[in-house]
Amino acid sequence: MLANANYSLKKVELDGYPTEADEDFSEGDVKDLVYCILASIVSDIWRKTGRNVRLIREEEIISTDNEMGNREEFIVADRISVTEERVVLVMEGKKASIGEARKQCLLAMRDCWDNNAIKEGNSDAGVLYGFVTTGKDWAMIR
To answer: Looking at the whole model, is its pTM more than 0.85?
Structure first.
């Protein structure tokens, strides 16, 4: 984890911590920071547990009724087999509004929960976490 944490720190040292005070601050800055943090965590989980977890960027989440779709900045999936994976974490980053990010994250979590339950063949879809951030403020949803 230390090597991955160092990578995240180097990213912040080189680019600076993204804040609205910067003229060039964009949602892309938030996404890059989140990617560095999540990549460190997912890599550490993989090394310590041997679980086949994957960090997926810009993933489209389709609802079980195929009527709604949502593109989520990041998801972490636990690959159960070659053809099956369960989403365990949904991450949404927004430049200025954690409330807007929360709404989008909750919709994606609902769709992931439904899809996980269908894959499991029952109503128990396991635990699903959601995180929202502006880069400065962070909130967890469970």
So the answer is: no
